[in-house]
Design a protein that fits this description.
The protein folds into two domains: about 15-220, Aspartate Aminotransferase, domain 2, CATH 3.40.640.10; about 225-345, Aspartate Aminotransferase, domain 1 (Alpha-Beta Complex), CATH 3.90.1150.10. It has twelve helices and ten strands. It has helices at about 15-25, 35-55, 75-80, 95-105, 125-135, 155-160, 195-200, 205-220, 225-240, 270-280, 300-305, 325-345; strands at about 5, 65, 110-115, 140-145, 160-165, 175-180, 250, 260-265, 285, 310-315. The strands form three sheets. A five-stranded mixed β-sheet has the order 2-6-5-4-3, covered by helices on one side. Helix 6 links the parallel strand 4 and strand 5 (about 160-165).
């Protein structure tokens, strides 16, 4: 039996998403056409837009459907083409709001901040930064890819100019997300060549994925459901933190954090070997190690925290995680780590 503990990378599609997508997977309907099939597709897209807006506390017209969010490396790589001021984090992975605002220059065009850190789960001072930026007339984008669908998010109350989310991080389809654009803010289109998404993103809409996104958003707006899932996730990750074997520590803020992410440091053993050992035990997890992804560089977040990314292990839970999954991880980890340490000592 497999135990999937990598929801922060991508969460399995919820049944609601799959059911909503099925009618559109084989359909030829272009939502930009005036025939009956086109109008039905347009209705599905706009219904999903309303549902996503409802989950995120936005107006429907503020929701721009995209192919995903622009989390971490996408933000860094895009920003690298401009004159960027980088602000560090403390040992818990948190940005200091005062230091960030001190770094804002008269010519600063945009401030970008995560809602919650994707590696260690630490929550950022988003409300404080947004308020300060609005007071100074500086645009602010909040990367909420890891927060949306796991904690309450109210775009209207937050007051940010831009917020990006991705459906697959909380059980929606892969390949669809949303950029929330504050009413009245004008943006140049990301992709040109068509009038889709009010001319903000050209290209035919992925009707099936958008319908699935809307279905998941609708499910999470049911009274108490988001809070119940967050409570269950926090209890599961708290168990991980409480039952760590010797020489394994938790990185980041273990209290003020996203409920579904825990990052661990494994003393004396490289994470890649731990991941392989866990995989052999039927457990899927993730690491900030350079060997664990397509990237040739270790996690810049963990490096900025001053910890060893090569010995980090991220465990993330989600809507489908059971207590048995946590039991399996807690049972397997000590044995995997001890065997690897013994091999290292023998070598």
């Amino acid at each position: 039996m497999r135990h999937y503990l990598d929801h922060a990378s991508t969460s399995p599609a919820r049944p609601e998403a799959v059911e909503a997508m099925l009618p559109w997977l084989g359909g030829p309907a272009d939502p930009g056409r005036v025939h009956t099939e086109g109008r039905l597709a347009r209705a599905a897209v706009e219904e999903a837009r309303e549902r996503v807006a409802g989950l995120l506390g936005a107006r429907a017209r503020e929701v721009v459907f995209t192919s995903g969010a622009i989390e971490h490396s996408a933000v860094r790589d895009a920003a690298a083409r401009f004159d960027v001021t980088w602000v560090g984090v403390d040992r818990l992975g948190r940005v200091d709001a005062h230091q960030l605002m001190e770094a804002v220059r008269p010519d600063t065009g945009l401030v970008n901040l995560q809602w919650g850190n994707h590696e260690v789960g630490t929550l950022q001072p988003v409300a404080e930064v947004v308020a300060d930026c609005r007071e100074r007339g500086v645009l602010v984008h909040v990367d909420a890819a890891q927060g949306a669908g796991h904690v309450p998010l109210d775009f209207a109350a937050l007051g940010a100019d831009l917020v990006s989310v991705s459906a697959h991080k909380f059980g929606g389809p892969q390949g669809v997300g949303a950029l929330l654009v504050r009413r009245g803010l004008r943006l140049r289109p990301l992709l040109v060549g068509g009038e889709q998404e009010r001319a903000r993103r050209a290209g035919m809409e992925n009707v099936a994925a958008i319908a699935g996104f809307g279905a998941v958003a609708s499910a999470l707006t049911q009274p108490g459901r988001l809070e119940a899932e967050a409570s269950a996730a926090r209890a599961q990750t708290a168990r991980v933190i409480a039952d760590l074997p010797g020489g394994v520590v938790a990185y980041g803020d273990t209290s003020v954090r996203l409920p579904h992410i825990v990052c661990l440091g494994v003393e004396g053993v490289e994470a890649e070997a731990v991941l392989l050992g866990l995989d052999q035990a039927g457990i899927a997890a993730h690491s900030g190690s350079a060997c664990s992804s397509e990237s040739l560089e270790p996690s810049p977040v963990l490096e900025a925290m001053g910890v060893d990314a090569e010995r980090s292990l991220r465990v993330s839970v989600g809507w489908s995680t059971s207590d048995d999954d946590i039991d399996a991880f807690l049972e397997a980890l000590p044995g995997v780590v001890s065997r690897l340490r013994a091999l290292g000592a023998a070598g």
